[in-house]
Amino acid sequence: MQNQRNQGKNLQTRASDTERFQIEEQLRAAATEGRIDFTELAERLTAVYNSRTTQELAAITADLPERVVPAVKPLALRVSSGIQKKQGVWQVPAELSAECNSGQVTIDFTQAICPHQEIQLNIAINSGVIRLVVPEGWQVHHDEVSINSGVSRDKLKAPPRVGLPVVNVQGSINSGVLTMVHPRAGFWAGVLRRIFG
């Protein structure tokens, strides 16, 4: 009798934020691969947000293959005097670099698929602008960026969430600007944040 109670208790283990995040990422990957459509993705993500136990989480992805994280090469963005944007649905590598002379580089993680807990971003800004757009709950650590006469503007207001990615920024700013923001507020922005993170 005691064993039965213990088995029942194990099946009803409370889910952690990290486990919910892992299921979210598995669902996003399945949608990108065409295994489920975006309507079903939204429905399943709602179930993830409402789930309380690991058993409930497991049921949400029971018909999907276990996620295998593909190796992604480091991403290098370089701008002399133009504008370059990395946005939309894209696979985030564990390491990125961005060099900006007098132009602008935007790295938008709003719809990105990120299988990593930590991301290393190396920057070099002369007199240009590097703009990071991160979903609410993500963290950006930029204390190790050396600044000459430039500016680092952290406009992130949402509190960090356990289990969501952390962007570690290193590098230098001469007379340029590093800006960190959340996606613009609005109905569709809110929908996209819930679906894509």
UniProtKB/TrEMBL annotation:
Pfam annotation, one family: DUF1707
InterPro entries per the UniProt record, alphabetical: DUF1707_SHOCT-like
Domain DUF1707: 13-65
Listed PANTHER family: MEMBRANE PROTEIN, MEMBRANE PROTEIN-RELATED
Name this protein carries in UniProt: DUF1707 domain-containing protein
Organism: Spirochaeta africana (strain ATCC 700263 / DSM 8902 / Z-7692)
Taxonomy of the source species: Bacteria, Pseudomonadati, Spirochaetota, Spirochaetia, Spirochaetales
